[in-house]
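For the sake of clarity, the format in which proteins appear in this thesis is described at this point. The record quoted next illustrates the convention:

___
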Amino acid sequence: MKMNRYPRTDIISDYLRGSVGLLLTAGPLLIVPVTAVATTILGSFAMLFAIFIARTAVRQKTVVSLNANEIQTQGLTTKSIEWAALTQLHLRYFAVKRDRSQGWMQLILKDGKTAMRFDSTLVGFDEITSAAYKAAERNDLVLSPSTMENLGARGIVKIFQTPSDLVT
């Protein structure tokens, strides 16, 4: 069983970004008297940065295990999906630039009761995505054109010219 984690450098960078954001938004609330509007705005942003830090802590603790029969995550909770029970696979791309030249992908796997989400920064992401795609094929799942295009971009399936090429 192969174990995968999020890279330490990404985790440290996320902690730094979250901490700086929290300091810049919550700091003024603690030091300087501000208006109710400023308190609401800064407090809302401080809450978002606190949630981001908590999410980073969860990612730091998460270990993803992969074998021929299932995928399992261990962290705050333990989840598993047997490949034979896989009912949904989505691979989404999130661009950070308007020209879509930079971004990240998110893999979403579901069975009847469990959902798992993985960012493309996860070590072994392509291996996990490939195993999930093979399971989706075995389970005769219909995948969206955008998922197929993203699988092609990762080199997991043949890249189609147009979404209509997916129709047989």
Remarks:
- The longest strand covers residues 88-95.
